[in-house]
Structure formats: structure tokens, C-alpha cells
Amino acid sequence: MLSIATNHLRSPRILKLSSCQTSLSTRATCSRMFSSTKAWSKRTYHSDNGMSPDSSSSANVKRSSISTMMLGAGIAGVLAFYSYQPHVSDEQGLTGPISAPEQRKRLISYEEVGKHNTQDDVWVIINGEVYDITEFLKIHPGGVAPIMKLAGKDATKVFAPIHPPDSLASLPPEAHIGSIDVATLPEGLFEETAEEKRLRDAREALPVPEAALNLSDIEQLATKVLSHVAYAYYASAGDDEYTHRENAYAYRRFWFRPRVLNDVRHVSTETSMMGMKTSLPIYVSPSALARLGHPGGEVNIVQAAGKEGIIQGISINASCSLDEIIAARLPGQPLMFQIYLDRNRKNSENLLRKVEEAGFNAVILTVDSVVPGNRERDQRAKGDFQAPAGGNGEKKGGAKGVAQAISGYQDVKVTWEDVDWMRTITKLPIILKGIQCVEDVEKAHERGIKAVILSNHGGRSLDFAPAPLDVLYELNQKRPDLTRNPNFEVHIDGGVRRGTDVLKALCLGAKGVGLGRPFLYGNTVWGEEGVRRVIQIMRQEIETNMRLLGVTKLEDLKPDMVRYVTHDIAPVPRQSSGI
Length: 579
Hints:
Layout: E1 15-16, H1 19-22, H2 30-47, H3 58-75, E2 87-88, E3 107-108, H4 110-114, E4 117-118, E5 121-126, E6 129-132, H5 144-148, H6 156-159, E7 176-180, H7 194-204, H8 215-225, H9 228-235, H10 242-249, E8 254-256, E9 271-273, E10 276-278, E11 282-284, H11 297-308, E12 311-314, H12 322-328, E13 335-339, H13 345-357, E14 362-366, H14 376-381, H15 392-396, H16 402-405, H17 416-425, E15 430-435, H18 438-446, E16 451-454, H19 468-478, H20 480-483, E17 489-493, H21 499-507, E18 512-515, H22 517-526, H23 528-549, E19 562-564
Helix pairs in contact: 3-7, 3-9, 8-22, 11-23, 21-23, 22-23
């Protein structure tokens, strides 16, 4: 858990944008970073035992590399946010990347690195380079313990899977001590762990993407190739997770009233959201840390969304940099950027301006999670994660999960006035995500907001918050004018796993429907191909069920095509997936 990119530099000096925000230039995809990391690792692994780096097949090396990174990724979730955040530089300009040859001061032996393992003197190895991170220990949002576990050791497995390649650029030059002397690395240092072997074996046994017939198949496969910590972060929800389950269950309460004897040879699923054209009425909900599942991370999702023609929301806690995301974007591909407001509003202001300059199409402000929900599955998986050094939490030994670790910058005080303030900073349309009652939809409309997303954070925040579909139904009953207003859009996410779910939401007035976890799971299993498989499954289900409903275009979907069922539905038989 090495949060060393920016958090330590919040002092009364000049705030500037980090390199990942300011140099949207050459394409440097996540996969390239991992190729570089893998190449260094292979040289390191084989330097002491005389093995050739080419002694195994490239396919096995790739699978092993991905599996190794999956495990390390789960331990290091905290830093993802900071690669987007402003950091401090001197008054002469931005701190540049530590990549020039002159920064490689000398070769450092592994034994020498190991001597720097106390709270007063902490060195770590990342991608073959040695860094002094002593300054950042006390303010690390994850506490002292995670860093001290890696003090004097190689932290590449932990650091590389979720951090953008340029995240080390914000370190002061003097923090880069030199390069590790690979000849001094002890034999067996990089031996495969039992967990890594399990993940590698599971990846080698994966079927082709076409074998997955529905989104549940993909999630089941993802559970096999995700580390325990990574799956706990992706799947966890608030408290007893009632809301998480209710999000999906709510769709069972609405049944269709199909129309027959219509010509449904040709159907169209095209629509637009906030002026952005899309081939389907679904979009990628912003979700953090995609590289916990696959080294390609958000870049995989961007590429898949672009090729399939749908809209994607990028999380402020994404594990790929803005450089990578923009570079992977197709010309004209619509992207939205999701933001939480920082306690230091100047940080948020800088970020909003940078996002607009980068060509994003809209900003999503998440309003349902001013503090992280009590995600116990995530916390148990991170049982050794402690509060920041010197805080009360450290003395109490309170555990934190990945979710809490990456949210330390968020402001608890976010009001409607902050929304008004955002509109003075950016010309991009602002979408409020996390509306959970009709009254707040009305208030958003009254204040001139053009779109809202009915959402409860996938059940990850307040347990017993209403299912978004139930809020949409209530909105359609009380204020149908808002669900059919051409100048105001209502979107929805949470619990969507079938094309029929999408069609029910559209019947009740939703303009678009977001999916989060399914795209993370698809990315986990097959990378870009997995994300495309998720979209292809949804496309096939939406088109098929439009025909069975008797409609040929999305505008034909009306409230009178669904009915609310009050009686208990037939129980779902227990059956295992064929995957």
C-alpha cells in the first residue's frame, strides 16, 4: 500500500497538476507498462539460476504474469486516486518524471536496500528502481503497517498492478536513490506463491469468451481468477448487503405486457444520452481500480466501449492515467468523467478544468457516498489495514478496506451550492449520480441540472436505501413529466444483469441504464475481449426481447408495457452455471 504520489505534498506551496493530468501526449497503454515490468522481472528471475527468459512459452509467461499481478493488485488499492490529483511543485514549474539517465545515481545492492526498513528510514524497490519513501510514511492514508511490510523489499507486485506508469513522476528527484543491482538479488526471491499458482491455473483453464451465455457466467469465472482481496473489493456492499441484493430483485417485481402481430424484422437500439450517441441504451458506470482484475485496466474498457459504440464513465479512482485513457479513445468516442469533491476545492477545480481540456463530454458528480459505506467484506479481506499513522484508528486497530483507503481526500460537506459552484468552473454538462428519492430529482430539475442517475452506489453505501428501479417507478407515478422531458434525462444503475432489466427501466422512463460490476468482471476474465463480450450479450438480449415485446425502436417502450406485481413470484430453482 504505497500512497506516495501526491498526498505527502499538501503544504502551503504552489498547487500544480500532476504529469498524468498535464501531458496528454504519446500513447503509453497499461499493457506496455506491464510488458516493461514483466521484461525486467524475467531478467531478474533468471539472473541467479541461469535460466533463459525464453525457457517457457509466451502464453504461459503471459498468464503467469497476469496472475501474479492480480494478487499484488489487491493489496495496493489506495494510490489509484492520487494519480489524478494536483500535487505541489516549485515555482519554476512542474516536477518532471524521474526517467532521465542522470537520475540513475548508482547501483544499489539488495542487501543495502534491506537495511532501510524502519519508520525513520524506508526504502522500496519498484520496477528495478530504488526509492526513499520515508517522508510519506506518517501521512499515508492506509497507515504505517502496509508500508512497513514492504520496507527494504521489492514492492513491484504490490505497486505495479494498479498504479499508472507516470505516478512516480510526482516524487522529488532525490527520492530516487538508484537502480537495483540485479546480480545481488537472492535466489528464490520471486518464487510463485500458492495464491499465484491458483490464479495462474485458473486462467489457463478459462474457456473462450463465447462460452459465456450471460453475465452471471462471466461473474462466476471472475471469482476464479480474482484474488481474495480483489473480489472482496469488487463484490462488497454496505452492512448486510440488503440493498445490493434488492437492486437486482426489484426487477423481478415488474412484468411485461407484450404486443403481438407487429413487424419486428428490423429493430434499432440506437439512442443518445446528453447529446452523446450510443449504439445501445446502456453505458459503463464509473468504477474504480479496473487493474485489480486485469493489467489493461480501464484502457481495456475504453477500447471495448469504443469498438462497440457505447458510452463510458471514467472513475476519478481509475487505475490507468488520463494519458492512457485518452490515448486509447477512438476519435469522437464519448467519455464521461466521474468526480468526488476534494476537501481542497482548488484540487477539484484544477481537475475539472483538465477534464474539460482533455475532451470529456460530461462530468458525473457522485452524491450518495460522502463517506464510504461500511463494506465489511472489503474490510475483512484487508484485515491488517490500519488507519493513518498517529490517528486514533491506529491505536484502536480498526481495519480498513480498499474502499476507505482510496477515499481519504473526499469532502463530507457537499451541498447543492457546490453543484452550483461546479457549473461556474466547467461548461461540461453535470450529471448528479446517486439520487435516491423523487424530491431530489425535482430539486435537481429546479436548479437547472440536465440529468440525474438514480443510484445507491451499487448497494455499496447506505444499506436499505431503495432500489433505483423502485425510485424510477415512484417518479413515473408522481412526476411523469420528468421522465418524458426532452430537456431533462433520468438514468439508472444498480442490479442490472439482463437485457430485460434494461427494457423495464426504459419502459418506466429511464433514458439510459448503467452497468458497473459486469464490466469489471468481463475485464477481469478476458480483458478487452471480456468487456466486449458483456456488451455483445446485452445487445443480443435487448434486441431479442424488443422483438418479443413487439417493438422495433426504443421510443416504442412505454409505461403501459410493464406492470407492477405484488404477489410472490415463482422461486428460482438452484442450478449451476454451465461454465
